TrEMBL record, chains A, B:
Keywords: Cytoplasm, Dipeptidase, Hydrolase, Protease, Serine protease. GO terms for cellular component: cytoplasm. InterPro entries: Class_I_gatase-like, Peptidase_S51. It is an enzyme of class 3 (hydrolase). Hydrolyzes dipeptides containing N-terminal aspartate residues. It catalyses: Dipeptidase E catalyzes the hydrolysis of dipeptides Asp-|-Xaa. It does not act on peptides with N-terminal Glu, Asn or Gln, nor does it cleave isoaspartyl peptides. This is dipeptidase E. Belongs to the peptidase S51 family. It comes from Darwinula stevensoni. Its EC number is 3.4.13.21. It is found in: Cytoplasm. The keyword Heme does not apply. Gene3D superfamilies: 3.40.50.880.
Length: 245, 245
């Protein structure tokens, strides 16, 4: 039973850039389509997924400049919690998911971001690792665990998990490491684990309050315990995923 | 400066099976070549990397049966620490590295295994996740973080890391997720991280006291901070990796 509707505006991208394009070219023009409606002329950028915060922020600034979206890096803020509290939009970039989540815990940003996004309706835009941390947990990241966050629980802006950069298994492969699908199935052998939305590159999820739609060009697969895998095409209505179990 | 030699007999496999073969067929026949010299007619098997301990142990038992190597699953032992202490050889199987390492911590087996292997000279054989946990840390696993171990520090039977199932980047790929090589390089952006030996499928490392040799059919790459990546062919002497920094 749905108790009350949640104020929420999220764009969660599988990836930021397509092969042969400038960094963020793919995602930035799509994000720009929401700029006026969602009031995103200025955004706080969280670069913790990479270690070169200044360089990373400059790259992102450059990508959004043509659209008139102003980017401010949180690493420059004296008080990162205050920066989140006053942000008009929050953009969270990809890189290493463990590093990103540890950064959010280290700077005590989990609760402030949740509050801004879920209570104040501040738009959240994430790509790759930035989408992983928006979900229930980072348990379905593809990244290497290069640092140890205190928990894998994440921002839980949605009650499911995302697997970004999803790739379907190659039937001709002789590689013996697990396929992406097998890795997600191993996760679901653990009781009580949430659904996993596997976003192919070129896909993103648009969440507005209690509605969620699959956008982009490449579709997604949905993994749920005890159910067959489902395939979804672009524009599919995935709002049912927002009903918490 | 090397202070004293370490007693140590390890076989660390990238993977257990090659495409189209029975489970463990590839590794078991190679492990058998060490059976008499290393006294491995009976081994304690640690199945924690998968959740189906009994099924997993049965599969491993079956694979080693033709060679007269008797397998006992640690999950049947009333006291897992005592089982490690009395083991004549320790075999650690692949699956999910996080689940495996958490199992070792939960059952308080880190120190007992280290003691058996490094002080009593008990042979240790690992494949895939079982090789990851033998090293300094699991920070270079390919697996998904489906459970949260209290630390990523592992058994440290060797002072470096392994990346199993290593795959070279495909120059024709349009996938935008990080290549394996890029993931390892991100790890090495963190100061003080140990070398990473990237074992292609079909490779394994033989460690005897202070000697280490690359074995198998497919070679390896070595990643070290501040040094160019090095390629090694089968039979290469990698003993220099055992000198702790
Ligand atoms: Ca990444
Ligand atoms: Ca594995």
């Amino acid at each position: 039973m749905k108790m009350s509707s949640t104020s929420r505006r999220l764009l969660l991208f599988s990836n930021s850039s397509m092969a042969g394009e400038e960094y963020l070219q793919f995602a930035s023009s799509l994000i720009n389509q929401f700029k006026d409606g969602w009031g995103m002329s200025k955004a706080l950028f969280i670069p913790y997924a990479l270690r070169t915060h200044e360089d990373y922020t400059e790259k992102v600034k450059k990508a959004f400049h043509p659209f008139g979206i102003e980017i401010e890096g949180i690493h420059k803020a004296e008080d990162p919690v205050a920066a989140v509290r006053s942000a008009k939009a929050i953009f969270v970039g990809g890189g290493n998911t463990f590093q990103l989540l540890k950064g959010l815990y280290d700077h005590k940003l989990i609760d402030p971001i949740r509050k801004s996004v879920l209570q104040e309706g501040v738009p959240y835009v994430g790509w790759s690792a930035g989408s992983n941390v928006a979900t229930a947990s980072i348990c379905t990241t593809n990244d290497m665990p290069i640092v140890h966050p205190p928990s894998f629980h994440a921002l839980a802006l949605v009650p499911f998990n995302i697997n970004p950069h999803f790739v379907d298994a190659d039937p001709n492969s002789t590689h013996m490491g697990e396929t992406r699908e097998q890795r997600i199935e191993q996760y679901h052998e653990i009781e009580g684990m949430p659904p996993v939305l596997a976003l192919r590159e070129g896909s993103f999820l648009e969440v507005h309050d209690d509605s969620a739609f699959l956008r982009g060009r490449s579709g997604a697969k949905l993994f749920r315990t005890g159910k067959p895998v489902e395939a979804f095409e672009p524009e599919a209505n995935l709002s049912f995923l927002l009903e918490s179990s």
